[in-house]
Amino acid sequence: MKTTNTEFWAVTIVFCVSIIWLAYNTTQYTSYIVGAFSFSFTFYITLTIWFFKVKKIPVEFSTTQKYADKKIEINEAEKLTKQLNALMSTETLHKNPNIKLKHLAEKLEISPHYLSQLLNDNLGKSFSEYINSWRVETAKELIKNNDQFTLEAIGLEAGFSSKSSFYSIFKKVTGTTPATYKKQVS
């Protein structure tokens, strides 16, 4: 049975007030401090529930992995990873700023779901992280070998869709900006 937000809070308040009333009315059998403890307890529990409901933070107690029951065999994963890396180096698909997971999966003749699983479980990267790592490596090579191109042109040639995405992703991956990297390798 699904309750509305108003019903949930009404039940919560009635429950908390009942606990406090019970604690204060049983002080003749217990210590008077039980009333104060019950108030504090219900106050903090209600505050915690409110925080999780307002922030819409999912409360999960299990830490299952995304594909825990459908792991790709190690041999199969290694074979697919080699095929993927060979495909990326020969066809330079990462230079296309509009490359999608499904396009790459079609080239490998596997499902997009299976490719996503391979990248996440076996390479520890999302699709965008994988593509961006190839782009950054391409940009690093272009920076080393080309003095006539601007950094923006190098970013666009490597497959980044804009100067800002090139700079932010390059810094995230390498820990340095493209301009600083250019100075280091010159």
Shape field = elongated
> Can you write the helix and strand succession as a string?
HHHHHHHHH
First-residue to last-residue Cα separation: 67 Å
Q: Compute the average pLDDT.
A: 85
Low-confidence stretches: none
Q: How many strands, what sense, and barrel or not for the largest sheet?
A: none
Helix coverage percent of residues? 55-70%
**Proportion of residues in β-strands:** under 5%
Helical stretch tally: 9
How many beta-strand elements? 0
* Overall SS class: mainly alpha
Return Rg in Å. Answer: 28 Å
Topology:
Elements: H1 5-25, H2 33-55, H3 74-91, H4 101-108, H5 112-123, H6 127-145, H7 151-158, H8 163-174, H9 178-185
Helix pairs in contact: 1-2, 4-5, 6-7
What does this molecule look like?
It contains 9 helices and no strands. With 186 residues, the chain is an all-alpha fold. The longest helix has 23 residues, at 33-55.
Brief write-up:
This protein is mostly helical.
